[in-house]
Write a structure and sequence with these properties.
Blueprint lengths: L2 H4 L29 H11 L1 H21 L5 E15 L9 E18 L1 H68 L5 H36 L16 E2 L6 H11 L1 H21 L5 E12 L1 E4 L2 E4 L5 E9 L9 H65 L5 H36 L4 H11 L31 E2 L3
Parallel strand pairs: 3-8
Antiparallel strand pairs: 1-2, 2-4, 4-7, 5-6
Helix pairs in contact: 2-4, 3-4, 4-5, 4-7, 4-9, 6-8, 7-8, 8-9
Length: 490
């Protein structure tokens, strides 16, 4: 296993080098199809779901600063005027008794929280909510990347199957010509010619279906990337390089689930948020201490001979420490407490479920890779056997020892062996990318290496001896070199 697999990502660390910010689009190379990394970057730069997650993440980050403001001083100003009914006797004055009493007040106050445990919990919850938002953002990012890789490889394997069928069609046409010549000289019946025609018709129908599938996948890729797609002919690989996966590596991959899987980390953060809710509930009856400074002035009107004047009261100020104790609150009763503790337990169980589900998915993907590699290696031997059988049937047909249907069936087996081998090879790499997504180790460097692997120049020895089997060389599909080397840099 490479060193990158052993690296533990820090909690909440979004791969900033891999996530392209809004409106930042990578310009692809105009001389060839865009690279896999360019397709991924184009997708994440314009994906609406990812943009929504960015906005949610920004909002969650702002909530941290909002929660911290509870420790800042609170300054307020009060201006008021009060009316009252009643009569007042002003002794030793000429003031007419008043039936309406008026009073006014103006003041300023400053309040500073000195001790409040719930504020600390609010800040911690805001930080954890931001962490959860980042994990959700990273999940969307990795899921989009995996989707792009899957479409990318599906297009290539689809085109490769089309190439294989076209070559099989050419081989069937050649066999049909040979059958026609044999029929013309009276060696075989017309049945041989009709069998070849029927086989050619079936291949044409298969080609039509594959070409529609290819167009569908290319359109889906264009929608995701904002118009970018690929030309499969730009990619040529000998398919002899396989993922560096061994059965004994499973435990190392499983260990990454706890610390690096984004879904598990998000569930863990949500459980930690629920624990903080419980703590806040337990601290509802804790005292809260505030430092309060007030400065105020009262205005009391005096009515004298129908004229209203105000007494010139002086400013008064006060300062002190205020202790607040919650004696009764409907939010702190036993029923509310039981509800919060039940929600904490629910979040914990959700965390365990997420961990179990991701582990199962990782195991399934890991063994699918091993299965694809084993299938590929087995089909390599089957491919060689099918070619040998095809050669024997062709020679037998020429001397009258084999029928035309024998040759056509042998050609089909060669095609099927190469098709299944090709699909197994692409599946191994598709699942390898998915495995890294689940393990939380998916990086842009892996996309670059996959792209380089698929653009490799194939040696001349890979397609030797194909012509004599009635099949034309296919750089992207036919492989005669034993799959001995593995790609150890991913």
């Amino acid at each position: 296993m490479s060193q990158s697999h052993a690296q533990i990502a820090s909690i909440g660390n979004i791969k900033s080098s891999e996530i392209i910010q809004k409106n930042q689009i990578v310009t692809p190379n105009s001389n060839s199809s865009p690279s896999l990394l360019e397709l991924q970057q184009a997708t994440i730069s314009q994906n609406p779901e990812l943009k929504a997650r960015y906005a949610s993440n920004d909002s969650a980050k702002s909530n941290i600063d909002i929660a911290k403001t509870a420790w800042y001083p609170n300054v307020s100003m009060t201006i008021g005027k009060t009316y009252g009914r009643g009569e007042g006797n002003f002794k030793n004055t000429n003031v007419v008794p008043s039936k309406v009493n008026e009073t006014g007040k103006m003041g300023f106050s400053i309040t500073q929280n000195l001790y409040d445990p719930t504020i600390k919990f609010d800040i911690e919850q805001a930080k954890l909510s931001h962490q959860a938002s980042k994990y959700a953002l990273s999940q969307i990012h990795d899921e989009l990347t995996n989707r792009i890789v899957s479409l990318f490889l599906d297009i290539l394997v689809n085109q490769a199957q089309i190439d294989l069928l076209k070559r099989q069609h050419m081989a069937v046409d050649a066999q049909k010509i040979q059958a026609q010549k044999s029929f013309d000289v009276g060696i075989v019946s017309i049945t041989d010619v009709k069998e070849a025609e029927a086989k050619a018709d079936k291949i044409r129908s298969q080609l039509a279906a594959l070409e529609w599938q290819l167009k569908t996948k290319q359109q889906e890729l264009a929608i995701l990337t904002g118009g970018l797609t690929i030309n499969p002919t730009d990619y040529h690989s000998s398919t002899k390089i396989l993922p560096d996966i061994k059965a004994e590596d499973i435990e190392q991959w499983q260990m990454m689930i706890t610390d690096q899987n984004m879904a598990v980390q998000q569930a863990l953060v949500e459980y930690q948020l629920a624990k903080l809710d419980t703590k806040k509930q337990d601290h509802q009856y804790y005292p809260k201490v505030q430092f309060v400074v007030e400065n105020s002035r009262n205005f009391e009107p005096i009515t004298d001979a129908g004229h209203k004047t105000y007494s010139n009261n002086k400013w008064e100020w006060s300062a002190g420490v205020q202790l607040n104790i919650n004696l009764h609150n409907t939010n702190t009763n036993s029923a509310q407490t039981r509800k919060i503790r039940a929600e904490e337990n629910l979040k914990y169980q959700n965390y365990l479920v997420a961990k179990e589900q991701q582990t199962v998915e990782l195991n399934r993907t890991f063994y699918q890779i091993l299965s694809s590699i084993a299938e590929y290696q087995g089909l390599y031997a089957a491919d060689q056997s099918a070619r040998t059988a095809l050669s024997a049937n062709q020679l037998g047909y020429q001397v009258g020892m084999r029928t035309n249907i024998d040759v056509l069936e042998a050609q089909t087996k060669v095609y099927e062996a190469n098709r299944d081998k090709l699909v197994a090879w692409y599946d191994s790499w598709k699942n390898y990318i998915k495995l890294n997504q689940i393990a939380g180790t998916l990086t842009s460097e892996q996309l670059i290496q996959i792209d380089n692997l698929l653009r490799q120049t194939v040696g001349n020895d890979t397609n030797a001896d194909i012509d004599k089997f009635g099949m034309l060389p296919s750089i992207s599909t036919i492989e005669l070199v034993a799959p001995t080397s593995k790609y150890k840099n991913l």
